[in-house]
Protein 1
Amino acid sequence: MAFLTLERVSKDFGTVMAVQDVSLTIEKGEFVSLLGPSGCGKTTTLQMIAGLVEPSGGRISLDGRDITREKPNRRGLGVVFQSYALFPHMTVAENVAFGLEMRRVPRTERTERVREALALVQLTPFAERYPRQLSGGQRQRVAIARALVIAPPVLLLDEPLSNLDAKLREEMQFELRRIQRKVGTTTIMVTHDQAEALSISDRVVVMESGRMTQVDAPYRLYEQPSNAFISSFVGKTNLLAGTWRRNGAAGAVEVNGIALEAPASEMAAGAPVTLSIRPEKILLCQAGAGRLDGRIASRFFLGSQWLFTIETEAGTMTVSTPNQGGDPPAEGAPVGLDWSPASVRVIADRAAGA
Amino acid sequence: MHRNGPIALIFHTLVVAFVLAPLVIICLVAFTPENTLSLPTTGLSLRWFKAVFAHPDFVTSFWNSIWLATLSATLAVAFAVPAGLAISRYVFPGRDFLNALFLSPLIIPHLVLGVAFLRLFALIGVTGSFTWLVATHIIVVTPYVLRLVLAALSGLDRSAEQAARTLGASEWTTFRRITAPMILPGITGGWLLAFINSFDELTMSIFVTSPATVTLPVRMYMYATESIDPMMAAVSALMIALTAVAMLVLDRTFGLDRILVGQR
Amino acid sequence: MIPRSTFTPAPWLLAGPGALFFIGLVLLPLALTVILSFHAYDYSTGIQDTFTLSHYVAVVTDEYYLSVFWRTLRISALTTLICAAIGVPEAYILSRMRDPWRSVFLLVIIGPLLVSVVVRTFGWSMLLGSQGIVNQALTLFGLSTVKILYTETAIVIALVHVMLPFMVIPVWTALQKLDPMVEAAAWTLGASRFTALRRIVVPQVSLGMLSGSLIVFGLSASAFAVPALLGGRRLKMAATLVYDEYLQELNWPLGATIAIIVLLANLCIMLAYNRLVEARARRALG
């Protein structure tokens, strides 16, 4: 049952078409991320849902109600801004209570709901502090409490974690998810960090140059990206340019004269394609024992895993292996690469228009 | 950063001495027990301060100036805040013209303003009116307020206002509860700066004041052209003291260097 | 967010009252004064209804007025030069101080702006008078007294005192924008302190110096209190001349003429400054 619907929403700023033809249906209670590089239109889309930017075209409906032209103070949505946008001259409690004040909630009920909201984000002892006395992570939690206390139908988050340092970001990702699961609010989050989007969303909407390119659950997005952009933006991958060759029921991609087995595809023989295989899907073995031979150009130790760049005849490949404790192959050593054919993705080149 | 060498420090000391000399002299002479301008070498006396408070003209002029400065500063804020909002938040035809118009009293010499006001008042028959005097002071001090209001508005985090809107606040409520408190330091600093500038103003006021509305600086000027005695020094010392207090308050609320240096 | 450009009445409602007030009390009086300067004047009957150019002609041909203008120009130029000579190095020295001294002395230098010009000028008259402190000190040392008060020297000294902050502030602001590491970089590359100053600091500061000079010149040329109190009856400058015409001679049209000329001179200075700023900006940014 669609709760929030965007139908062909677009925004033209005159000099640039920021958002084109975005259509999306979001179910009640879902956590959806809008993912993409800066300039892809994700923040503009969020601002249109919030009512801070007026769409040039299309419709936005909430629970059956058309809210496309409604003013932001009438929509009743909860918004968490990238800079948190706390009111510097009000205490934490006053900040959180503001939305309730606007709704003329009586004082006793207000105090109770503010208390609950602060408990939800674990900030109860900070109620009388001012924003300038709080750390970044604490301010962010105040912003979340302030948006949730009004029990909005939808919660909108604009790059909520981008101003936090790496360690805190990880913690807050789980916090966000916990809070959202507990309260059950439909949530839309904008982010450029694909790890963030993948880890906490029910579905991810990948955007590029103002358009939606794929909408899927994180797992499917990662394993089955629909084009080269998504493939390389969502997670690391090896991309090899080659030509599709039919081989009986299955097929192969010919890269630099080497035929690499690949899953069957509806492609015309001879079509230019890109072969995509994730670094963690490749296994290192003895030279000659795998599908491809190569020489280790450099290796990096990342604690939980080793990262290798390997020169092969098909091109330079990145391989990651878990740290098993032993000593891995040294730089310069010859090595073989192997993988399961199911791990390979064949993507038609856009230029060819396949 | 490289420290200043001895030559630099000597130069600096001389400059500071030059800057402070007239003010120091005034404060010293104000306490002289003698009848003529002299340093209080024989002892300190408050007789000239008492003379000031006993001089009805000076006391009246002082209150004129206080009242005038308060009114002009307050009304200047009333004009400058909405104008500042319009100029910084909206794009509309005539915006640059309005900006230049409101700031024009800064580049028009006060001499010219005084003369121009006098002509207007003579034509409409209101010379010597206190109300119209207030109007002239409003014109002269509004640019100071506007500059600070514009600076405060441009430094504002707009997302706080957007947050208030999404939480249900109307445009007026957002301004009242969020924007205004956030730019309050700028407004207060502007008010104080406007007050001081109105209180000090001489060149323009000399053309538009009448015997009934004489301000303190004009009174002092008139007195100084007739006789020079330590009472002038006492009045001046009082004005310096008043300025010092104002400077302290300005510094506490906004940061004096930000206001004065940010000006130009 | 981009300022809204679709039509709303809001800006007009916000700025409207102030705009009307300013148009009525700035543009209108100025226009009236310009018109006034063309009115004929008769010493016995006052301002006439006829129009004439005689005032403008008188002002640019009469010896007396020309000498006043020349004095005004001379004094303003001298004041500007001395202010630059004192103010620029002082701003540099201030910028090199450590806190808290830096803030303290900045306030000391700039604070006097908040003290009325009458007070400051009066202080100088006490210092420079024939019975003034300077002369008292000279007699103490057995030297003969000097007449400083009511000379051009006194006017210049007091004007420099009043205008100094207006020179220091723009130069100080320009210096603040300078990254102190840039100078250090020049030193590490082998430049002497003086060369680094000359080649790196001065060009950056020159715009501030120019701005300060123009402000000081403009304000000095239209200054009233200083020449009025320290120039005596004989040494007139443009502003005191206007005062005489208006309040003593009652020849308002002539006074208006001089005032308009002062205004035009100031506007020319502003225009010249804007042109220079644009030209420099274009050269610097390409």
Protein 2
Amino acid sequence: MSVSVPTQTPPRAAVRRRPGLLSHRVLSRLAPYGYVTPATALFALLMLFPMITVARYSLMDGAVTKRDAVFVGFQNYAVLFADPVFWQSVGQTLYFTVLSVVFHLLIGLGFALMLNSNRIDPTLRSILRVLYILPWLFTAVIIAIIWRLILDPNGVINSILMALHIIDFKVEWFSSTKTALNALTFANIWAGYPLYMVSLLAGLQGIPKELYEAAEIDGASAVQKFWYVTLPQLLPIIISIALLDFIWTMQVFPLVWMTTGGGPIYATEVLSTYTYKLAFSRYEFALASASAVFIFALSMVVTFFYIRHQKAR
Amino acid sequence: MKFTKSLAGLASAGALAALCTTAAMAETTIEFIQWWEPEMPAGALRGIMDDFEKANPDIKVTLVSGPYSATRDQIVVGAASGTLSDVVGLDGAWVNGLAKQGAITDMGPLMTAVNYDQTQIADIVKVDGKSMMFPLASFVYPVFVNLDLAKAAGVDTLPATRSEFADAAKKMTNPDKNEYGWVLPLSLQNPGGIQNDVMSWAWASGGSMLKDGQPDLENPMVVGTLDYIMSLQTAGVISPGIFAKKEQDKVEEFVNGRVGMMVDSLAHINLIRERNPNLNFAITALPAEDGYTGKRGLPYASWGIGISEGSQHKEEAWKLVEYLMSPEVNGKLVSIANAFPGNVNAKPDFSKSDPLFEVAFGIFQQGKLANEFVGLPVAEELMRKMSVEVQKMFDGQQTAAQAAAASQAAWVAEFAK
């Protein structure tokens, strides 16, 4: 005899509320957090933690070097802001950065237009493309060595200028307070324009030909076509790269350090070299941290505009 | 039978425990951070460590090697984070900062514990009376003279006084041929030029930049030295590009025959020979003030050695320091490195070295080692501050006396911290 046991199907709600298990809805809500957790953890460990540590050091006296370092509030910032060399380095950083960004853009755009032009032979264009991108392939150390050799009092530039009777004495480009900052800026412009060139060339190649044809039909001149077609089309790229370049250039260290070390006197002192000297020459890690926080704040201002621009797009 | 088995088991366990204990003893590993290994012939320093390990089978040494600047940064970070290696290669310029930070230990008690004969050490660098560093190998800085350039300029004898040097430098200078009498590196990236190429002139004449351990830069000897260097610049005998020039640029110009004389480390003799085998050059002691008859101070740089305060194996670390400072090992090491010994009883063998080392050893024995930056607080920063003031002097912004006064004020502020 068999006894049939009626099977009872539990109501749906009961299944959902099984104790000890998360519901599907909760799991669905948690899933995105699970995906971003590894990246967030890495960001917290490698970026956030050091940033908070540096900010904390900037509020302490004798951070790192003293075992009994104490909280001193904004005293380090007061010391920093009272130092005339600090403000000189801020001014020189902005001069170096603004000039670099402007010339990066002008040269990069000029070369991109040249490489995009049909008036140049395709073979020559390919050769120029390789030549123009070369500075981008060198590391900062190599760039520093190249420019130290070129701008040496006995270097190529002086030889050429003297042969052309433009100068009648050997200019000490990196060694004179009058020329060092401009020489350094020049080297940095040379090293950085290819980023613009490559990005803008890609942008130029993406502009629909119909726009130029329409402009031509309307009787637009070459300058008008550049001004009313090319430039507006490239503007989003230009703004993005210029803002990023501004942030990167403001933090340039190896090129300055390896060519002039911030000298002669304080003629090429920029915020990065100023901060480095505080930390590794004077062992004033608290002051160096305050200076680093200042650089961070400056970068954040530009970053804010960059993010706003990206959102607007 | 069962008892025998148990006994065998016990014996095995005992043997295993003994083995483990032996292994644990053999595993006492100490770290030794320095920048010397890359500067010595391949395998030379490791070979010395292997000999040490043979003599001390319970200690293993791990070498942590890198270039000078990277090692310095690593030591700074290690000192800050409490992870400094057990044995530390030191530059005299770092000692004060590391000692004040409590990162390196006083080797006095370690020496007392083994009745170590301290008189055999050429110079013990002390901070607040505590023995922090032994110079293991010293590289003196004589004047290198390009003999071909000197002969062509009519300079027959190596300069021994300041006026002879100035005279020789003037004769060797010919801007049209791109030749200059002297080269002076004053780059702010590495301000060592102030120590090796500027203050060395004062030390050579028995001068000092300190008084009772405090800055004394306004004394007549220091001001006179700055005045003398300025006179060389005014005479146009210094190779151009001073403010951006580094030590390697200085050597490069000498190697290429563009400068007649330079103050440089003996360590560069081999490099100069390799770069330009045809260069005919000699060395001589740094010229002193006219009429000076005392012992000449010889600027030097050292490979110093010390022990980390945080080391868990101070005894083992001391054994390594003692081994490296012993006359035999020290003599062997400095012979390989082409340096002068830190142990006064060591006898370096220069038979396989460049003949100029023999000459240099004679200069070394007649003079005295002089480098007042060793052991000073933030020595590199002091050099950099003085370098800025000397640059202002060269730039015509101030006189030698004003440069000395400004440096004095900057140094006093640093010493007061």
